[in-house]
Specification:
- By secondary structure, the protein is α+β, with helices and mostly antiparallel strands.
- It has 2 domains: about 270 residues, ATPase, nucleotide binding domain (Nucleotidyltransferase, domain 5, 2-Layer Sandwich); about 210 residues, 2-Layer Sandwich (Nucleotidyltransferase, domain 5), CATH 3.30.420.40.
- Helix content is about 35%, strand content about 20%.
- The chain has 21 helices and 20 strands.
- The strands form 6 sheets. The chain has a 7-stranded mixed β-sheet, sandwiched between helices. The protein has a 5-stranded mixed β-sheet with strand order 3-2-1-5-13, with helices on both faces. It has a two-stranded antiparallel ribbon with strand order 4-7.
Length: about 500
C-alpha cells in the first residue's frame, strides 16, 4: 500500500489530504474551518478578538478540536485511513505554543475515550498562542537587534521580525515572568501537533525553526547567544532540532479509533511555506513560486546558504534538503482589487483588456499600490494616489502601472536569490493572463500554472511519502504537480523593464 497523509494547520482551517503515491492520485481529503465548524472558540477567522489590534492570538485547544474533527470526517467519508503508511504536516509559521509540567504526562497517556481538547485543557502555561499576524513585539525586536546585531540575519536567515517566535517569547517573558517560569516546553504549531500525533516531544525542523530568530542555519542547532538574549533559560525549554528527512516518532494508539494504524511513522512537520515549496514541485533551485494572495510571496530553493543583503528576504530550511528563500509583500491581491474598484472595471478588463489596450513599459508610467504599511521594502505607508503622477490617465494605464510596479518590485527584491528559469504561480490572481505575461517578461522566465490548490497540505503528504516511504521528490512532483498552462517570456521586453528599475527605486523611497 502507498497511501500517505498530510495535514496543513493554517490560520483559518485544518486540512487533511491522503495521497496514493504509487497511483499519483489524491485518495481523500477533508477540511475543518475554525470559524464555521468550531464556533465555540469565538475565532471567525482563526484569530481571537483583542482590544489591541496589534495582538493576534489563537486558542491551541481549537487546533486540537480540529484535529479530532478532521479525522472523524475522513473516517465518516470512508477514506482509506487503514491504508496510510506515513504522516507529516505543516503549520502556520511563527506561531508558538507554551506547555507546563503536566503536558508530558498528557502526551504519553492519550485516552481514546476523551477528546484531545479536553485532555490538554490544563497543559498550557499560556492559554493562547501568538501567531504570524501578531505585530505587538516592536520593542522586543529592537532589543534583539541591539543584542545580536547583523549576525542574527547572517546566521538565522532573518533579522529580528515582529511576527517571529523569538520576539514573541521575549515579550511573554517580560509581560508574564511567572508564567514563563512555569513553561517547560515551547513548541511551534507544527511541532506541537506532531507531538500530539506521536504522544511525545517532537523535534522542530529546519524549515519552521528558521522562522524563530533562534535557529542557526549554518550549524543546524539552536543559537545560544540568540536564545540567551531572548529569555533566560530558553534553551532548556526548546525541543531538539530534527534533521531534515527524519522521523519524529510513531503514531500514538489514540488515533487508531479513526482507523489509522497505530505505530506508523510520523515524519517531522514543517512550516506552511516550506511545505508549499514541496507541494508546488519547486524543491530544486532554478524554479521559483509566486503566490498571488492577500499578500504576495516569492519563494524558491537556494543552491547554497546566503541571505538578502538588504535584510528583507528570509531563509528557511528546505524539506528536500538545503535551504529556501522567501520574500513577503503585504500589498497583494487586496491592493489590486482596490485599484480595480477605483477604476470602475470588472476583473475581465483588469486581467486582460487593460493589457491589450496598453504596451509593456506603459510609456514609463509606473505605480505602487501601498494601501498598507509595506514590509518589502519596509517604509512609510504610501497611498495609491501619491504613487500616480497621472491621475487623469485611462483605467487601462492605471492598471498596467499597478501590475508592472508590483511585479518589478517582486523581481527587484528577489534578485539576491539568483536566476529563475521557471516560475510557478498560484493564488487567485494566477488566472490573470495579463499578470502572468508581465511576470514572464519582467523575470524573463517561463511562467507555469499547475493544478494544485492546497499546496501546503499536498506538500506535507509528499514529505510523508518521501521521508517514510522512500519516494523521490522528483517523481512525486512529476505525478502531483503537472503543468496546466505555460506562458513564455518575450525577450524584446527585457530591456523595457530593466530601464524601469530606477523609477521603481524612486517610488519605493
Amino acid at each position: 500500500m502507498s497511501h500517505y497523509l498530510g495535514f496543513d494547520s493554517s490560520t483559518q482551517s485544518l486540512k487533511a489530504l491522503i495521497i496514493d503515491a504509487a497511483a499519483g492520485k489524491i485518495a481523500a481529503s477533508a477540511i475543518v474551518h475554525f470559524g464555521k465548524d468550531l464556533p465555540q472558540y469565538a475565532s471567525p477567522d482563526g484569530v481571537l478578538a483583542h482590544a489591541d489590534p496589534a495582538v493576534k492570538h489563537a486558542d491551541p485547544l481549537m487546533w486540537l478540536a480540529a484535529l479530532d474533527l478532521v479525522l472523524k470526517r475522513l473516517a465518516d467519508a470512508g477514506a482509506p485511513l487503514a491504508a496510510v503508511r506515513g504522516i507529516s504536516g505543516s503549520g502556520q509559521q511563527h506561531g508558538s505554543v507554551y506547555l507546563n509540567a503536566t503536558a508530558t504526562a498528557t502526551f504519553a497517556h492519550l485516552d481514546p475515550a476523551r477528546e484531545l481538547s479536553a485532555q490538554f485543557a490544563g497543559a498550557f502555561s499560556r492559554s493562547t498562542s501568538p501567531i504570524w499576524m501578531d505585530s505587538s513585539t516592536t520593542s522586543e525586536v529592537r532589543e534583539l537587534d541591539d543584542a545580536i546585531g547583523k549576525r542574527l540575519q547572517d546566521d538565522t536567515g532573518s533579522p529580528a521580525i515582529e511576527r517571529f517566535s523569538g520576539p514573541q517569547i521575549r515579550r511573554f517573558f517580560k509581560t508574564d515572568p511567572a508564567a514563563y517560569a512555569a513553561t517547560v516546553r515551547i513548541h511551534l504549531v507544527s511541532s506541537f501537533l506532531a507531538s500530539v500525533l506521536i504522544g511525545g516531544d517532537a523535534p522542530i525542523d529546519h524549515g519552521d525553526g528558521a522562522g524563530m530568530n533562534l535557529l542557526n542555519l549554518r550549524t543546524g542547532k539552536w543559537d545560544a547567544a540568540s536564545a540567551d538574549a531572548t529569555a533566560p533559560g530558553l534553551l532548556a525549554k526548546l525541543p531538539r532540532v530534527g534533521e531534515t528527512g527524519s522521523i519524529a516518532g510513531k503514531l500514538a494508539h489514540y488515533f487508531a479509533k479513526y482507523g489509522l494504524p497505530a505505530g506508523i511513522p510520523v515524519a517531522l512537520w514543517t512550516g506552511d511555506n516550506p511545505a508549499s515549496l514541496i507541494g508546488m514541485g519547486a524543491h530544486r533551485p532554478g524554479k521559483a513560486v509566486v503566490s498571488l494572495g492577500t499578500s504576495d510571496t516569492v519563494f524558491a530553493a537556494l543552491d547554497k546558504f546566503h541571505t538578502d543583503p538588504d535584510g528583507y528576504g528570509h531563509v528557511f530550511g528546505n524539506p528536500a534538503g538545503g535551504f529556501m528563500s522567501l520574500a513577503c509583500f503585504k500589498n497583494g491581491s487586496l491592493a489590486r482589487d482596490r485599484v480595480r474598484t477605483e477604476t470602475g472595471v470588472d476583473w475581465k478588463f483588469f486581467d486582460a483588456t487593460a493589457f491589450e489596450q496598453t504596451k509593456p513599459g506603459n510609456e514609463g508610467r509606473l505605480a505602487l499600490p501601498w494601501f498598507e504599511h509595506e514590509i518589502t521594502p519596509s517604509g512609510r505607508p504610501i497611498g495609491l494616489r501619491a504613487n500616480f503622477d497621472f491621475p487623469a490617465a485611462p483605467a487601462a494605464v492605471r492598471i498596467r502601472a499597478t501590475v508592472e510596479g508590483q511585479v518589478l518590485s517582486r523581481a527587484a527584491h528577489s534578485a539576491w536569490v539568483g536566476k529563475f528559469d521557471t516560475i510557478r504561480v498560484t493564488g487567485g490572481a494566477s488566472r490573470s493572463r495579463g499578470i502572468l505575461q508581465t511576470l514572464a517578461d519582467v523575470f524573463q522566465a517561463t511562467v507555469e500554472t499547475i493544478a494544485v490548490t492546497d499546496s501546503a497540505a499536498l506538500g506535507a503528504a509528499l514529505i510523508a511519502a518521501h521521508d517514510t516511504g522512500g519516494y523521490s521528490f522528483d517523481a512525486l512532483a512529476a505525478q502531483f504537480c503537472p503543468t496546466v498552462e505555460t506562458v513564455l517570456p518575450r525577450p524584446e521586453n527585457a530591456a523595457v523593464y530593466r530601464d524601469l528599475l530606477p523609477a521603481l527605486a524612486s517610488l519605493e523611497k
